[in-house]
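lol ok so funny story. i was supposed to be doing the assay writeup but got distracted and ended up predicting the structure for this chain instead. priorities right. anyway since i did it might as well share w the group, maybe its usefull for someone
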Amino acid sequence: MADPTPQEPEAPQPRPAEEPALPWLEELPPRKIVAELDRYIVGQEVAKKAVAIAVRNRWRRSQAPDDIRDEILPNNIIMIGPTGVGKTEIARRLARLAGAPFLKVEASKFTEVGYVGRDVESMVRELVDVSINMVRGEREDDVYPTAETRAEERLLDLLLPPVPSTPTLPQPHIPGGAGGTEPGASRPLFVVSSKGDVTPKVAEADAEAAERRRRTREKLRQQLKEGTLEERDVEIEVQQQSFPMLEMMQPPQGMEGPDVNFTEMLQEILPKKKKRRTVHVHEARRILVDEELKKLVDMDDVVNEALDRVENHGIIFIDELDKIAGERGTQAGPDVSREGVQRDLLPIVEGSTVQTRYGYVRTDHILFVAAGAFHVSKPSDLIPELQGRFPIRVELSPLTEDDFVRILTEPENSLIKQYSALCAVEGATLEFTPDGVAEVARVAAKVNERMENIGARRLHTVMTTLLDEALFELPDYPTKRIVFDANAVRDRLAKIVDDEDLRKYIL
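and the output, tada:
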């Protein structure tokens, strides 16, 4: 029974092969976007629907007539709900759906000018970097077979260095000599075509050597494909990338200012240093493929495409928005910078031009999705101008005990499936009976009621406490089959759940 079980967690693995086949996020109909989110997030249908409509509207705008296209502004969203109900998970799963540049930031990291923290405009610069990497990755995927072929030829040149060519000059005519050559010396032969073209004729010995060299090269090529030369050492010349002294010249965090990268500028000016390294064939192949990809990908085209995607398809998710909201008019203590952050954030959300190292970017059509628990503050505590820039508000419902049961079983990345995969590595099987799953959900809901409600994150603490002993003893476990029913879960967690002081620290 223990032998076939390790293959069980690997059954759903063909899924990653399907994900790249998805069209662009904005080309998906809203129902399809919701279906993709349903694979990982339980409930919260209202929030999923609002996000799907907002994302689909980006594509609808791109298909609109030119005279009205620039007038259609994105409908920014605020998701309101307690912690652990799926706000951030919706953002993470949106980022996995390919096509649109996506960035998640935390509002509490930003402060107004004069306070230690991140510059608000840095979120747009980071989004540009994400887009550059995304487009460059797509371009590299397109030319990767060509880069591999070129790298293989260079690798063969390293394994079988080419013979230096020695040009043969015609022998000078020496008067009085017999033909102008010494005995035994071979004279070059030339072939004249009917058009008068003169080409040197290759001697038979040279032809045999060339044919022998070709066969050796093909044999090495076959060995490379079979992987028998992976551990052989080769010497390659690589360009030195890092300049330690230049990296020390970076501005400190919070004082970035306009994004002028002095390190890159100086690296362009300074001469390129090269050094020779002795590496294994598999490492040499990786280095050579990277060099060939840099030659094949046109970075100017990548930058232009990336900036266009940021301006027309970019999505920025601002988490913890409630941390910069407070009662207006109170200017005391550390809260003094909160309203300042909102005022710095306002022009970015409203639409402005931000300077980046690749050029200027307009933020008018970037979609902003904000989220916050709003335990202490309310959305109305935001400054009115910022409230107006987030016209759509979606409230996420707290999770119930039934939701916990679904979270433990339905999503493709559920905790039970994750722990089952970990146990399968050791050749063991982990099983939860339906009443065992219900008991875990009941304990998590009960602890959330008695203590701070942290939503689905409570399932992590409960499952970790439940399985810590089994995972510790797993390599020497006698049965290699672990089953948790309601009684087993209750016996394992009863002491902790009943002891209030112990529960505070463990659950």
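The longest helix spans residues 122-159. Residues 1-22, 176-181, 252-259 have pLDDT under 50 and may be disordered.
back to the writeup now i swear
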